[in-house]
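Figure 6 in text form: structure in, sequence out.
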């Protein structure tokens, strides 16, 4: 008799659990919440995939331009050279010398660079050749 009561109790528990699960699965609010979460995650995955595709396409386009000789190298090169110049100037300013000596060195260096640039532009000292020699 005891076993029969236990079996009936377990059967009722399983029946109640099945009914609860059935009610949850038919609940419209639950399904709309699940649907929103699935859509949100799908949108996030779509955004990530789109960004990666655009990044890869951009890199491929850049590589294609470089292979055709359309690469823009002037701006990065000038930026690098400008950074080197600023670094040299700051290095000279922070050397352990007096302020007057540092200013003199910077002024001399600047004048040397200016003179070399004007020599190159004017064609002196063989820096620039026109090909008409």
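Output sequence:
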């Amino acid at each position: 008799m005891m076993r029969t009561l236990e079996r009936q109790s377990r059967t009722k528990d399983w029946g109640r659990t099945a009914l609860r699960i059935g009610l949850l699965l038919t609940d419209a609010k639950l399904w709309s919440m699940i649907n929103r979460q699935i859509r949100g995650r799908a949108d996030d995955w779509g955004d990530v995939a789109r960004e990666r595709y655009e990044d890869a396409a951009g890199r491929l386009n850049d590589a294609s331009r470089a292979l055709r000789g359309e690469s823009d190298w002037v701006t990065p090169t000038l930026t690098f050279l400008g950074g080197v110049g600023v670094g040299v100037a700051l290095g000279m300013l922070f050397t352990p010398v007096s302020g007057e000596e540092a200013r003199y060195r910077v002024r001399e260096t600047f004048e040397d660079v200016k003179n070399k640039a004007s020599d190159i532009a004017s064609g002196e000292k063989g820096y620039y050749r026109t090909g008409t020699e």
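Caption detail: The two ends are 122 Å apart (CA to CA).
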